[in-house]
Design a protein that fits this description.
alpha+beta, three-stranded mixed β-sheet, globular, SAUR_fam
């Protein structure tokens, strides 16, 4: 049963990434709220976090980690699918920054933690 749930999450994640990639490839540069264009490097994805819509560029491999799967699920519940190509995550910018910092410092240790575990850490 656990394997079926994992496969379902992977399929959903691939669908989200595929939709995002298709739409973002139509525009080489993403539109920023302040009118500036910023390039997202290959192998990375831009996500917008919090009410301020702070832009973070994260490696696409992070999107398969449990914390990101949970955040993407919450984003889908809260915002629905956004056709403009931008991925918006409903969490506080400071929390997201801590998650990214931990993953960048010691990915091997923290990649398997879920959202609940990260929340307990902070």
């Amino acid at each position: 049963m656990k394997k079926v749930i994992g496969i379902t999450q992977i399929v959903r994640l691939r669908q989200v990434v595929r939709r995002w990639k298709t739409r973002s490839l139509m525009r080489r540069f993403s539109e920023e709220p302040d009118g500036l264009n910023q390039h997202t490097p290959p192998g990375s994805v831009a996500v917008y976090v919090g009410l301020e819509r702070d832009r973070f560029v994260v490696p696409t491999r992070f999107l398969n980690y449990p914390v990101f799967v949970a955040l993407l699920d919450q984003a889908e519940e809260e915002f629905g699918y956004q056709p403009n190509g931008a991925i918006s995550l409903p969490c506080e910018t400071g929390f997201f920054r801590h998650v990214i910092n931990l993953l960048e410092k010691d990915e091997k240790t923290f990649h398997s933690l879920g959202l609940h575990e990260f929340v307990q850490m902070f």
